[in-house]
Amino acid sequence: MTERIREFLRNRREDGPCVVVDLEVVRDNYAKFARALPDTRVFYAVKANPDPAVLKLLADLGSCFDTASVVEIELALAAGATPERISFGNTIKKERDIARALELGVRLFAVDCEVEVEKIARAKALTGAEDVRVFCRILCDGAGAEWPLSRKFGCVPEMATDVLEHACRLGLEAYGVSFHVGSQQRNTEAWDGALASAAEIFRECRERGIHLSMVNLGGGFPTKYLKTVPMVEAYGQSIFQALSRHFGNRLPETIIEPGRGMVGNAGLIEAEVVLISKKSRDEDEVRWVYLDIGKFGGLAETMDESIRYPIRTEHDGDRKIPCVLAGPTCDSADVLYEREPYFLPVSLEIGDKVLIEGTGAYTTTYSANHFNGFPPLKSYVI
């Protein structure tokens, strides 16, 4: 917790949970990415935290933006980004949304199948847009990630060349290849296999007369939760070595899409203990600790206990016992940590505040709108 956040919470008198994001941490994170990969453009993943203040800071610093919808495109533009600094990175888009993005000046689109290419080509013809670029997302296994991504996005590498050739036939520019090695990826070598596939696609496309320019290295850069994670510099060094190994002297343009790694450690949630109870009178020491925030209030990433947030209390020096941690809603799925109990101080009491660290990413965006009547998570950017 930064001193700026500590001072804000000291003076806060509102009721209910909130997340506080320190912009100075975001600024520092951006600088670290820029230093670690100096020849790579940063496309911040807006979905991680779309707060206008966060977007404006990053736009002022020169960041580009990875967007998943027209609304996110409009947010990036409102923050000061120009259209050429925006990528429509969702591979699942309505044709009318593609057309709207083109009208707004966006010219860079992700695809992973020929049907999506055809939608972009029709929208291009409808709007009269020129110089429309597409990059094809490929699948990779995501081994080593705490939040592995599913097969929802991307095609097998063997299919990508056909998709990109189809784009060329329809008057689009086949620009490059993208992939995502899984969120909260702690293995710095995870990019190697995907880059090997990308290099092969570049070679196959050259044989067909198609000259690709760019590799989108995706996100996956972690923030620190309970486990130690490598420094950004270690990722930069490993990625550069993999690029040199697979592309030799013909290095492509590269972009990255950090989200969690950009804002995760900049935020902290203050919550309150609502209830502490036991489920039986036997000698079982496990207690249930219910907070005024849960999966539906912004902590959706505790699903399957994939993300285990650091939790601090005023009693951390006392003896700790295993607890099941749960949210306040009338939904049995609103349990945060039960499979692997969380150790909290035995002196913790109803009404105590708890601080949940590393919550700058994917909390406000996952906060449900008045589920069970609970308001969305309050957010403050300082």
TrEMBL record:
Sites of the modification N6-(pyridoxal phosphate)lysine?
Answer: 47
Cofactor list: pyridoxal 5'-phosphate
EC number(s) per UniProt?
4.1.1.17
One Pfam family in the UniProt entry: Orn_Arg_deC_N
Question: GO biological process: what's one of them?
Answer: putrescine biosynthetic process from arginine, via ornithine
Q: What class of enzyme is it?
A: lyase
Q: Specify whether Cell inner membrane is a keyword of the entry.
A: no
Q: Name one GO molecular function term.
A: ornithine decarboxylase activity
For this chain, the family text in UniProt reads: Belongs to the Orn/Lys/Arg decarboxylase class-II family.
Q: What is this protein called?
A: ornithine decarboxylase
Source organism of this protein record: Salinarimonas soli
